[in-house]
Amino acid sequence: MIKYSTIKKKFNIEVERTTDNGVAHLTHYFQNHVNGVSRHYKKSAIEHLIQISEELQLAEEPQMQQFLPLKFDVPFPPPIDYEFTFIDLFAGIGGFRIPIQELKGKCVFTSEFNYWAQKTYEHNFGEVPFGDITNLNLDIVPKHDVLTAGFPCQPFSISGKMKGFEDTRGTLIYNVLQIIEKRQPRVVFLENVKHLIHHDGGNTLRTILKHLEDLGYKTSWKLLNASDFGVPQNRERVIIIGHKTKKFDFTKLKTKPKKILKDFLDENAKFEYLNEPYTILTDYKVQESGLIFIGHRNKSIRKAGVRPGTEHLSRVHKQPNRIYSAEGLHPALPSQESSGRFWIYDKGEVRKLTINECYRIMGFPDKFIKTTNLSESYRQIGNSVCVPMIKEITKEIKTQLL
To answer: Is residue 243 part of a domain?
Structure first.
């Protein structure tokens, strides 16, 4: 059996900065050649393989079948015996795919527009995601049992005159709803930031739920925290589940006692210590969330716009000035901060998390291959999902809905 890495090297399979999805068709075909899904990708896959052969000036025109089946020598190969199929929209670096594959789910379509995330995804799964979902011919999306999407939070401009989900046109959830309408998956599994609840005065969430219901789905949603699923991070996310005949029961999810950050930290690494004056508090409280605010950087005290008697608090109005104890949780890893972390107090010193620690407190396995671009690596993990939380939800989806 030929290894994927051999074919990858032979045909120079790499993610490119292009709108051409040829390599996505090819790798999707490699992963789905033995099921009916392959017909969605075969024609374009063969064309791309011939094009590559011509560019590389290979002596023989390649015959696709001679390479199949492939042995996927990647950290997270597709399951051989699967029990259900799913698609991975806004896939990022595969935070949905890792746990769903562990539960015998077979991914039959992936989409992610970010170049760096596509590269990381290919390294770990042996598949290049299709690009910008807004530019795709949705006919290539095969039928599937579960649709997953960690979609961006965008406002809707509702005129009050449009029908169905047309009022979401111009937003990325519109494309998700198009796929749902076209392929009618048994389960819809959506994830978003906590802010979705209040976004546009709650209109964004109401609109999404309404249109899922218009498409024939019974919906349930809940705000969940990653800290209840075995990782020391205060990361709240909105989860929406839709099914044709049943409502998902969130009370069936099995939660775990809160972990503490220090049990997830590296013993030895190149730590980034705080090399400026700071204050560690002796009188501190464990917040209800599990966070322990234990100190602050000694930044200038603001006076303008600050109530009398609270001037000292102005030092900690901004998250980057705060210091959190490793005896509690870490705040939600941010996606917008290239340095990716907040200050923590551990073993008498103040430092930031290492990149490995960041991935660990999101539940990513140690074998996960990170991008060599460090700032992108921090951005990618900040944009990802909590793997153990997704796994527990998927377990209950299988039990309740599949």
So the answer is: yes
Three-state DSSP at 11 gives coil
Catalytic residue among 107, 153, 358, 386: 153
Quick check: is 50 in a domain?
no
For residue 391, give its domain range. 74-256+382-401
Active site residue 153: yes
Torsional class of 340: left (φ above 0), alpha (ψ -120 to 50), beta (otherwise): left
Number of domains in the chain: 2
Q: pLDDT tens digits, residue range 239-253?
A: 999 999 999 999 999
Angle CA(235)–CA(239)–CA(243) in degrees, nearest 5? 165
CA distances from 158 to 167, 197, 203, 373 (A): 5, 18, 10, 40
Domain shared by 163 and 242, yes or no: yes
Residue 252 shares a structural domain with residue 330: no
Please, what is the Cα angle at 38 between 34 and 40, to 5 degrees? 170
Q: Give the model confidence (pLDDT) of 115-155 as tens digits.
A: 999 999 999 999 999 999 999 999 999 999 999 999 876 65
